[in-house]
Write a structure and sequence with these properties.
Layout: H1 2-15, H2 21-30, H3 34-44, H4 54-67, H5 71-78, H6 87-103, H7 107-120, H8 125-141, H9 145-158, H10 164-176, H11 180-183, H12 195-203, H13 209-222, H14 227-240, H15 243-254, H16 263-281, H17 289-302, H18 304-317, H19 321-337, H20 341-350, H21 359-370, H22 375-391, H23 395-407, H24 416-431, H25 435-446
Length: about 475
């Protein structure tokens, strides 16, 4: 059903007339296709703000840029807005720009915009409280826990009674800064059954880490997508010095959409620690890359988390570029094989081993990882590589990988991956300026015919003697 809806949206993107284009883009966004809606905005939005409807388009575009996580584009567009823009639009653009600066860890710039938003506009109560919480977040991303704590106290004084979800937000923010004492200020305000309460009790020593982990695991059985419980398990595992448990929790965290940043580096450190333990047990010598890699390859079938840890170790500690790339490619494939696609994309974009993978290097890694894989597994690999490059704004590179995922799919009965790959390939081609190629690729893909059956092998002709 989901695949059918997305195919319908793609058809609508090509079939609708220019007159109702904005309405179509809004419908696409509401139907859960923000990337496709964004491509329509890029194509059909008038160039100049003086043209009627431009601000309606730009308002939608800001929302789409936020939803598709393009903070740098928001900041660049905000610099060019006319000073006489409608006041309602100015308010929205300031809020989006402040959020964008926070996403890029630019706390000072975010606070400057939030100050204008708070003092120059008549915000409704909900928007005012949202802006004040962003100010608090700006201090936390700069690790200014004292300033954040004082801002939280002022917020609580100004907005009584404090909602439980806001109290949880404050407590969790301070816990991430290792300020459990200050976080205790909101213990009484928290929902007793919330993950924030359990985490605070564990960090404050009111409940043992193993008991807290057991409760979090039970909660995750009922609510598998709750990031806070997975984060609690990772923190508890670190307190217990249980590195294997921490790896599992961090990999799960990176597979959730709202995991906080820096988790990639934390997972990488856990990988290295586990690999060193396995290497010591096997009495391996540092610098003997072949033996470390051989141990990792042997562990793939019997100890998948251990193998991923060993591949991570060789990827960072290997002496030559060849062995490091081999280890990285195996790590990438191992994450996908464990259904940790999102973790793979985030890990390779963050590149916590010390250097971001270039596009040519990614191509070599994907080629190595795909070698010998059956097509269903290979197309997952190509799709995830497309997502890596899409996050880096490399539209042409992303389109190429998405197209390869499409070509390895059976579009007579498309699954979700096939549909998403086609959607993203078309969108990436349009974003790169190849609109005709995007339409041609789309039409070619949806008209895919059943592959011709291979002729049976010819019988050998017996020669007459």
């Amino acid at each position: 059903m989901r695949a059918t809806v997305l195919f319908s949206l793609i058809f609508l993107a090509f079939a609708a007339s220019a007159a109702d284009s904005l309405l179509v883009a809004q419908q696409m966004y509401q139907a859960g296709a923000p990337q496709l809606a964004y491509e329509r905005a890029v194509r059909d939005q008038p160039e100049k703000p003086e043209v009627a409807g431009w601000y309606d388009w730009e308002s939608l575009r800001l929302t789409l840029l936020s939803d598709t996580h393009r903070p740098a584009e928001i900041i660049e567009r905000a610099k060019r807005y006319p000073q006489n823009a409608p006041r309602e639009f100015q308010q929205k653009s300031l809020g989006h720009a402040a959020w964008a600066h926070l996403e890029l860890h630019q706390g000072v710039a975010a606070r400057a915009l939030l100050a204008r938003l708070i003092w120059q506009f008549e915000l409704n109560p909900a928007d005012h409280q949202w802006a004040r919480r962003l100010v608090i977040r700006s201090y936390l991303i700069e690790h200014k826990a004292d300033e954040a704590y004082r801002a939280m106290l002022r917020y609580q004084q100004d907005f009584q009674p404090l909602p439980k979800e806001v109290a949880a937000e404050f407590a969790q923010g301070l816990l991430r800064e290792a300020r459990a004492t200050e976080a205790m200020t909101w213990l009484a305000e928290l929902d007793p059954a919330s993950p924030a309460t359990l985490a605070l009790q564990m960090k404050a020593g009111l409940i043992a880490p193993d008991a807290a982990i057991a409760q979090a695991r039970a909660a995750l059985q009922k609510q598998p997508a709750v990031t806070a419980y997975a984060a609690l398990i990772a923190d508890g595992a670190e307190m217990l010095k249980d590195n294997r448990l921490q790896i599992g929790a961090l990999e799960q965290l990176l597979s959730l959409p709202d995991a906080v940043e820096q988790m990639e580096a934390q997972l990488w450190r856990a990988y290295l620690k586990e690999a060193q333990s396995l290497g010591n047990r096997a009495q391996l010598l540092q610098g003997d890359d072949a033996s470390w890699l051989e141990l990792a390859l042997r562990a793939e079938t019997s100890d998948a988390p251990g193998a991923r840890s060993l591949f991570a170790y060789v990827a960072q500690q290997g002496a030559g570029i060849g062995v490091r790339e081999t280890a990285l490619s195996r790590l990438y494939a191992a994450l996908l094989n464990a259904q940790l696609d999102e973790a793979a994309v985030r890990l390779f974009n963050a590149a916590p081993w010390g250097g971001k993978v270039s596009a040519p290097q990614l191509e070599r890694l994907i080629a190595r990882a795909a070698d010998g894989l059956p097509e269903p597994a290979a197309r997952k690999l190509y799709f995830s590589a497309g997502r890596v490059l899409e996050a880096r704004q490399d539209a042409i590179g992303a389109a190429d990988y998405y197209a390869q995922a499409v070509l390895k799919s059976d579009l007579r009965a498309p699954d979700l991956l096939a549909t998403q790959a086609l959607q993203r390939a078309v969108a990436a081609l349009e974003r790169a300026g190849f609109k005709d190629d995007a339409m041609q690729f789309y039409r070619s893909a949806i008209s895919q015919k059943e592959p011709a059956k291979k002729a049976p092998p010819a019988k050998p002709v017996k020669r007459k003697k």
